[in-house]
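Lab notebook, design round three. We kept the backbone fixed and only want residue identities now. Task for the bench partner: fill in a sequence for the structure below.
Input structure tokens:
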């Protein structure tokens, strides 16, 4: 009788447990369904189909690295959709938990950044525009005014401003060359401005809204530290009844520093020192003189400094790109067989001069020091990046000249290139020399400003260069 009663009780408990688990799973399913049908999630899906799909279709026409970078961008936006769904079912975590929650999005951002590293490719501006723009997705990490971030709308706009510099380069380079690249650049801008900005403005102007009753985000558990070895036992206390304790302290031999001082005091101070004679003094030694001979200077100058540079290159690759790399102390470099479809890439050169005769499509001077470049005509732009003390002379026409992250740049313009648009970013000591209007045709030097004043007037900021007067 008792055994039958126990079996009935066990079956009843099992049924109650199954009903409890079933109700919990149904609650979870209901929360997921409610989150997926939320108006903000539906609006984000429509946003993905309209704007991200437009960028992906434009990238498919280009292919190569542009399509790969756009695929990373597409993955990042899909990850953000999953995060928005999870936010509807998750309690607001602490800073450590928030970092773990946003880890999938951060992995996509790092993947996009890694595509811009290494040797600079022909589509560097495309890759850089994607990697810089993806930081706009970090608006989802906004946790209040004290979190160190701008409001979500402002964060999206600021992130696009950083990416727009490279996106404009794509527009300028391919404006008259390939409409597919222009279509891609315009679609990328529409993705963020107005696409993502308007979505955030409509649904999350003050940041994401976390669930009050959802699950919690657990921080990653750290592996337990290996057990430490037990500390050695303390030395046993000295016995008060040892024979040593009966000896007076003066009769026992000294130990440690006391023994050292005892040995020093027991000997004369000058024991072991040698007498310095007159011929041993520095002022009287014949092998020490106060000047460096010309022979020593020549020997030191003849020893070249060891630096990690790659092998020098001067070649035309695949009939489209001139590569001039790691040329040092070459003053007679010349490119005379070129056409308007070719580009010139100058990298890692030092103390050299390159002359380009003819019209080329684009010129890039990257990581060069004390280099002079003389060219006739350029179709798209002449770009100077990460350089020090370079001189660039345009003898014909150039629609755009950009200087980025460089110091000490001299630009020489001809009369035909005075209408060139000069763009500078993070650069200093930029001087532009233009021909004077007089009959002597002397060059007049103009220094481009590197300090600016930003004033708030009539509801917007007005930027003016700093002018220094000697009065």
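Proposed sequence:
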């Amino acid at each position: 009788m008792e055994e039958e009663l126990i079996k009935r009780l066990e079956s009843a408990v099992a049924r109650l447990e199954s009903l409890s688990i079933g109700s919990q799973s149904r609650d979870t399913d209901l929360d997921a369904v409610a989150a997926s049908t939320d108006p903000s999630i539906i609006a984000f899906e429509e946003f993905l189909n309209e704007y991200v799909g437009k960028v992906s279709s434009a990238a498919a026409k280009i292919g190569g690295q542009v399509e790969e970078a756009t695929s990373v961008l597409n993955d990042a936006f899909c990850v953000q959709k999953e995060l928005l769904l999870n936010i509807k079912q998750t309690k607001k975590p602490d800073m450590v938990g928030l970092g773990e929650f946003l880890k999938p999005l951060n992995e996509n951002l790092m993947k996009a950044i890694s595509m811009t590293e290494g040797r600079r490719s022909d589509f560097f501006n495309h890759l850089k525009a994607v990697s810089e723009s993806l930081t706009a997705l970090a608006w989802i990490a906004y946790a209040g005014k004290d979190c160190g971030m701008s409001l979500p709308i402002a964060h999206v706009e600021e992130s696009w401003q950083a990416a727009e510099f490279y996106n404009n380069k794509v527009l300028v380079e391919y404006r008259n060359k390939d409409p597919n690249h222009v279509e891609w650049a315009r679609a990328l801008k529409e993705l963020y401005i107005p696409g993502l900005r308007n979505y955030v403005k409509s649904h999350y102007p003050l940041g994401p809204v976390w669930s009050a009753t959802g699950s919690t985000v657990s921080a990653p558990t750290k592996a337990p530290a290996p057990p430490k070895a037990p500390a050695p036992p303390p030395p046993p206390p000295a016995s008060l009844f040892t024979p040593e304790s009966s000896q007076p302290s003066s009769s026992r031999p000294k130990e440690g520093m006391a023994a050292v001082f005892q040995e020093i005091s027991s000997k004369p101070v000058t024991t072991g020192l040698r007498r310095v004679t007159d011929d041993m003094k520095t002022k009287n030694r014949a092998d020490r003189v106060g000047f460096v001979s010309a022979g020593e200077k020549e020997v030191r100058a003849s020893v070249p400094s060891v630096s990690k540079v790659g092998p020098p290159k001067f070649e035309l690759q695949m009939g489209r790109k001139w590569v001039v790399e790691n040329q040092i102390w070459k003053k007679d470099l010349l490119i005379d067989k070129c056409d308007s479809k070719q580009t010139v890439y100058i990298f890692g050169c030092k103390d050299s001069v390159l002359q380009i005769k003819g019209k080329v499509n684009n010129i890039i001077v990257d990581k060069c020091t004390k280099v002079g470049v003389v060219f006739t005509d350029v179709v798209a732009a002449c770009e100077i990046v990460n350089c020090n003390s370079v001189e660039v002379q345009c003898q014909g026409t150039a629609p755009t000249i950009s200087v980025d992250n460089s110091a000490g740049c001299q630009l020489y313009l001809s009369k035909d290139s005075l209408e060139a648009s000069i763009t500078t970013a993070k650069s200093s000591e930029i001087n532009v020399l233009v021909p004077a209007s007089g009959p002597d045709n002397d060059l007049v030097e103009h220094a481009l400003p590197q300090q600016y004043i930003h004033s708030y007037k009539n509801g917007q900021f007005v930027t003016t260069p700093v002018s220094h007067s000697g009065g």
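Keep this in mind before ordering anything: The radius of gyration is 37 Å.
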